[in-house]
Model the fold of this input.
Amino acid sequence: MGLLVSIVVVLGIITFAQLIKVFEVTKSLKGGDDHIVTDKENRNQATLMFGYLFVFFAFCIWTYVKYGQFMLPEAASVHGEKIDTLLGFNFLIIILAFIITHILLFYFAFKYQRRVGGKADFITHNNKLELVWTTFPAIVLAVIIIYGISTWNEITRSEPENALTVELYAKQFDWTARFPGEDGKLGEANYRLISGTNPMGLITDNSLEEKLAELNEKKAELDAKLLDAVPDGKIAEDTQEEIWRVENHINKLIAFQKEADNRGAGYISGFDDKPVKVEFHLPVDEPIKFQIRAQDVIHSAYMPHFRAQMNAVPGMVTSFYFTPNKTTEEMRLITKNPEFDYLLYCNKICGAAHYNMQMKIVVESREKYEAWLDQQPVFYAEGLERLLEEELNKKQEVLASKK
Amino acid sequence: MEAQVTEKEILTTQHEEHHHHDEPFLTKYLFSQDHKMIGKQFLITGTFMAFVGMIMSLLFRVQLAWPGEGFAVLNFFLGDKWAPEGVLDPNMYLALVTIHGTIMVFFLLTAGLSGTFANLLIPLQIGARDMASGLLNMLSYWFFFVSSAIMLFSLYVESGPAAAGWTVYPPLSALPQAVPGSGLGMTLWLVSMSLFIVSSLLGGLNYIVTIINLRTKGMKMTRLPLSIWALFVTAILGVLSFPVLFAAALLLIFDRTFGTSFYLSDIYIAGEALDATGGSPLLFQHLFWFLGHPEVYIILLPALGITSEVIATNSRKPIFGYRAMVGSILAIGFLSFIVWGHHMFITGMNPFVGAVFTFTTLLIAIPSAVKAFNYITTLWKGNIRFTPAMMFAIAMVSTFITGGLTGIILADAALDINLHDTYFVVAHFHIVMGLSAVLAMFAGVYHWFPKLFGTLLNKRLGYIHFWLTFLSAYGVFFPQHFQGLAGVPRRYYSYTEYPMFADFADLSVFITIAAIIGGIAQVIFAYNFIYSAFRGQKSPQNPWGSNTLEWTTPIEHIHGNWPGELPTVHRWAYDYSKPGKDQDFVPQTVPLEEGEIDGESGH
Ligand code: HEM
Ligand SMILES: [Cu+2]
Ligand SMILES: [Cu+2]
Done:
């Protein structure tokens, strides 16, 4: 680091010294020559331009050799492999175009530099040539478009059957992955239910009651505070406003409760869901459906090794499907890196700690995945027990009535 | 023949005029309604803003190269609150990135570029005495000035400037609880941008009306220089798209202050569930990018126009395929309105819509390719003179191609899934838009400096400036492609939390050093600019041997541009090296000879 800084300083000094020298030279040269490019200068700059072509290409190759190796390893998902092939195809075309156009650009600049007594050709246009270079890119682009869109359609249109549904829930500044319980279904959520004990706002009869109790308690506190406050003062005003907000929240929740009651017991499938943090596991070779939500601002679920990304938008549920096809272990062999891990990170600017909002993903066999999932606590164990009891009772009643 | 006569006339009349004109300082320099002065005002204000934006980028590049280390410069610029012990604060990092982007995209490359060259060139190149409305023109500048001042002022507010990215997506930009910059800083951002939009509309309407109505005798649309065509279409794009940004900003202001919920829905933040439901953050993105994409062409078209002039003049050769160039400007202008969705492939919008936007976006590559080919062919069999302006123009063609090609990758929705919001995008848009437009702007300044200040920029400093700029430009942005392909996200304060990004630690240092060298180059330019404006060599009437009308006006600025009558135009702007002429250029004011054919089909 110290070395680098000194390099910069030295470069700075050199440039400055050069500057002063140049200035002295120019000043001593009297008279208006700044609009005239001398033959020598013209030759020099033309040569430099041509030299630049080689420097630039060398630089491209150097960066490729040095940093190209750190590009993402081969895709770890089924659709990701298609994306890689498409990317390779497109790169082939644009690199070719890049090389050809740059050689022409800099070579022509060099070749057609001003010649003493020379004159440019008066060429204004050439219909044939122009037709060729309009149609040719058009044809190439047609191929790119058709290939690209069909890949896109394959990826986005083919909703797999019996996919395992996993929710990715984003908030400032971490992720929660939620797995369905025995019922295989993810419970519904409502952001008005979010609380310390229910960070994803899952709907269960219990969480509704708890949240209502919390709000009522808060309202009582505020009411007391209002009584104590100087009437019409700033504190009173603020408190009154907060009370209105809390009351509004309570009313909305009560309305929601009624609606939910009308809908029946469907909403309680959240009891047995398993929210996990920091790390989550996926079974290999099985289609996964990610259901993606956000609590506060937009985030983006980015899993580059699977070539997967989808925004997490408050007020919306978005989704992305993929089938992981390489386990973490396999990927460690492929990358020759025993510490390799799949990662999920946030890729939409979301505030101060946006840069560190990550989760580890482990892809493994079905058995290992199940063993891992078994160890994860369910969201609302008591509720689950009660539910099981109720169901048991119902079954017994049914049995009893049959008898 | 006639041209020479007029030239003599000009010189004599100019002398007289000059002595009679002693305007008070206030109306001459400050509240001037003269388009040339307003052009200078835009240039100087825009350049000043650019220096602010550049310093910001160097500050955050320092953090990226040496994360978490203390630097006295950071503390010097940002103080103890935002850089305690010289370590940049993460919120301030985001704020710097945001204001840097805003300044560069809007203040430098929209107002600075169009404002300077539309004002300077439109009346001079079409043969008009001034803009259609000098008053609106003056207002346009002063709205821009106030807007700039407010943007700069927002740097000093207690909670920091806006920090939600230059695209200011809500809810992040709507909720002060989400990021401190979304407090007063964001309010000022919105106020500043609203004034900016007013400025841009006043300017744009004026440019359009002027070009349509005030062309001198003989200046048919088909004889307009490409610079004017480009500025014309740019102004139309601005007038059609900026109001949409205004609407987006207005609704955001409502959401922030009046409790509406256009963009907000189901949000729980800072321990509280907000009441807003039913709004959509995606609505903002649609509105924003409906401006945002045309905006990138509002930046790029004037750059292409300038490049066309500079390349033709210095190749001493007609621009190749004038009609195709005009056609491609029109095609790009039209297409730019139907591609905005390529910024939203992974927002959860309907995949079918994604396919449509992939299609329309890739179509733009065709007129873009035509432009690139035409520039290259203009050089072919030319007689090239390497003025600094010409070098910048050639460099611009290179960056336009390099950046345009990676656009083809990003336009493919399937590929964007994995590249969206990574450094690949940063590389793409900096090269295609940032570098191309900045290089073209330099080309324009070197080329038309005599028309701005009556003097010439120092040539040798120009070469040094060019080479340092061009080398550092690719040095900074080319390697970022590889970071993007490795899945490195943009807008991260630090990459140290991810073992896989450690591979790029030394690259970050390399990039930062390249950026610092680029910064030093701009100091050289600033020195050259200021020195030459006051003490530079006096320019002759037509220093580059150009055909266009601006070089028939006297070097000393006068009101009304031409003493005596307005010039009459007899030919297109590209009769360079026309056979049978004794000079290698034929100004537009020279009448056609017997049997001489004008324009593209001329021989
Ligand atoms: C061949 C022509 C071009 C194509 C096909 C193209 C395509 C794209 C696409 C698809 C994106 C979105 C990428 C993403 O967000 O992941 C993008 C981003 C961008 N492009 Fe281009 N582009 C082209 C030319 C240009 C030009 C000429 C400019 C500017 C003058 C430009 C400026 C930008 C900017 C500023 C962004 C970044 C937006 C952001 O995410 O903040 N592009 N381009
Ligand atoms: Cu995030
Ligand atoms: Cu765009």
Observations:
- Chain B has three domains: 34-279, 313-533, 539-603.
- Chain B touches chain A through 145 residues (CB under 8 Å).
